[in-house]
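We were asked to recover a plausible sequence for a given structure. The inputs and outputs are reproduced exactly as logged, with field labels preserved.

PROBLEM: sequence recovery
POSITIONS: 153
GIVEN STRUCTURE:
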């Protein structure tokens, strides 16, 4: 058990998710209600805690995951369960590498495959184009969103 805030009450528990005898996660009680609602994880097996799972809805299931996909120590990608079915179906990512999550990948039909992308085509960090996969694995533009220039409007 881990006492993160120093109040004498355990806030976290070390977890060995892969069974190798080395802790690769820490279950945390961030709101102090006695239930684990977050978990720091070693998402890529490099020995560093580079991922965070969270229960943001309070239903006892992790529905949000933040991970460092570039290895720079920053949690640059967010994965969400937006439907509440226990499956992650939306990804927010920094496609441009500037530190802003400017691209959204979604499974809108619930089959476990990404089929819709909202992308930033003009580098203003606001998605302005919609691409869809019509089932063949090829994404084609189907709509442009109102934000066509770089003024953010």
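RECOVERED SEQUENCE:
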């Amino acid at each position: 058990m881990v006492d993160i805030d120093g109040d004498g009450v355990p806030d976290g528990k070390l977890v060995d998710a892969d069974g190798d005898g080395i802790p690769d996660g820490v279950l945390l009680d961030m709101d102090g209600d006695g239930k684990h609602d977050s978990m720091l994880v070693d998402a890529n097996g490099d020995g560093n805690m580079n991922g965070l799972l969270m229960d943001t809805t309070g239903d006892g299931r992790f529905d949000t995951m933040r991970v460092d996909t570039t290895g720079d120590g920053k949690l640059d990608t967010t994965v969400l369960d937006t439907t509440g079915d226990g499956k992650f179906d939306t990804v927010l990512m920094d496609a441009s590498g500037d530190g802003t999550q400017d691209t959204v990948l979604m499974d809108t039909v619930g089959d476990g495959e990404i089929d819709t992308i909202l992308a930033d085509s003009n580098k203003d960090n606001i998605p302005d184009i919609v691409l869809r996969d019509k089932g063949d694995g090829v994404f084609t533009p189907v709509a442009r969103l109102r934000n066509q220039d770089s003024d953010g409007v």
